[in-house]
Amino acid sequence: MSQALTLARPYARAAFALAQEGGRLPQWSQMIGFAAEASAVPQAHDALRHPLAKAEALVDLLLPPGDSDPTFRRFLVELANHRRLTMLPEISGLFELLRAEAEHRVKATVTSAQPLDEATLAKLRESLRKRFGREVDVTTAVDAGLIGGAVIDAGDIVIDGSLRTKLARLGAALAN
After folding, report:
1. How far is CA 78 from CA 56, 84, 150, in A?
2. 75-117, pLDDT tens digit by residue?
């Protein structure tokens, strides 16, 4: 595990606890996601690392427009005071994992050689729901290099049904 994830974990847990306590998990997901994206913009990232930058100014830079949740602001101030604002992408990712676990959801990415139609995606979602015993949030990606089939990445579980991998296994078996 990377050092950034190790350092981000307690902040993600704290953010999750604050959001859950306030009954605002979806709102915090949006706010922390916005702040994470904003912190990754090169100019903002440089500002966050600048030693003379004021915490309040940095927090104002990362707050989403509209929703002015004072608890979220205090959370960002705490990150700024500990020079951890650059870790927002890792904190956001861990926050989303905690939220998915609490909501009994699994996030899966399906990468296929060609775009999947809605009927195929619905069947796949249902199969994954049965396998994991939870609701599944599916995102899709296309990689023509797979030749055919698909690769399903659901956190710790990767199901590789791509033609590229099957051909590689066949080639390895023939070579031995």
Report:
1. 10, 8, 42
2. 999 999 998 999 999 999 999 989 988 998 988 999 999 999 9
Laid out side by side, the sheet with 135-142 consists of 135-142, 105-112, 150-154, 157-160
123 has which bridge partners?
A: none
pTM value is 0.70
The length of the chain in residues reads 176
How many of the other CB atoms lie within 10 Å of CB of 8?
23
Q: What angle do CA 35, 40, 43 make, to 5 degrees?
A: 110
Residues pairing with 152 in the sheet: 110, 159
User: Is 19:27 a contact under the CB 8 Å cutoff?
Assistant: yes
With beta carbons less than 8 A apart as the criterion, state whether 114 and 105 touch.
no
DSSP three-state, residue 48: helix
C-alpha 167: how far from chain center: 31
CA–CA gap between residue 86 and residue 104 (Å, rounded):
29
Question: For the chain, which ranges sit under pLDDT 70?
Answer: 1-2, 67
Q: One-letter amino acid identity for 151? A: V
Query: In whole angstroms, what is the distance from residue 10 CA to residue 87 CA?
Result: 12
